[in-house]
């Protein structure tokens, strides 16, 4: 069974609690997700605030931002099939029915 972690401040982190994701079509669990708590959210917001305050992104030229966005889009496309299967399981449908 796949276990999904939280991505906080450049690291994949587990949590004290988890959520079990069920396939409504079969009634079977197929994944677990690290359930972020208040402390995790505080840590993520602090990391975001540090990034904003550092000004690291304000000096990045639009061409570089475009390059980053295109790389992000490429990474998303690379896992699109996996995402489609997850969406199907969440809704209890086969890939053909979806």
From TrEMBL:
<comment type="similarity">
    <text>Belongs to the aldehyde dehydrogenase family.</text>
</comment>
<keyword id="KW-0520">NAD</keyword>
<keyword id="KW-0560">Oxidoreductase</keyword>
<dbReference type="GO" id="GO:0016620">
    <property type="term" value="F:oxidoreductase activity, acting on the aldehyde or oxo group of donors, NAD or NADP as acceptor"/>
</dbReference>
<dbReference type="InterPro" id="IPR016162">
    <property type="entry name" value="Ald_DH_N"/>
</dbReference>
<dbReference type="InterPro" id="IPR015590">
    <property type="entry name" value="Aldehyde_DH_dom"/>
</dbReference>
<dbReference type="InterPro" id="IPR016161">
    <property type="entry name" value="Ald_DH/histidinol_DH"/>
</dbReference>
<protein>
    <submittedName>
        <fullName>Aldehyde dehydrogenase</fullName>
    </submittedName>
</protein>
<feature type="domain" description="Aldehyde dehydrogenase">
    <location>
        <begin position="13"/>
        <end position="98"/>
    </location>
</feature>
<dbReference type="Pfam" id="PF00171">
    <property type="entry name" value="Aldedh"/>
</dbReference>
């Amino acid at each position: 069974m796949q276990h999904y972690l939280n991505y906080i401040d450049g690291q994949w982190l587990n949590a004290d609690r988890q959520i079990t994701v069920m396939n409504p079509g079969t009634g079977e669990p197929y994944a677990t997700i690290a359930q972020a708590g208040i402390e995790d959210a505080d840590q993520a917001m602090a990391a975001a605030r540090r990034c904003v305050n550092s000004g690291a992104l304000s000096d990045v030229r639009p061409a570089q931002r475009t390059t980053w966005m295109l790389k992000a889009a490429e990474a998303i496309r690379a896992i699109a099939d996996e995402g489609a299967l997850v969406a199907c399981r969440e809704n209890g449908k086969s890939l053909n029915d979806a």
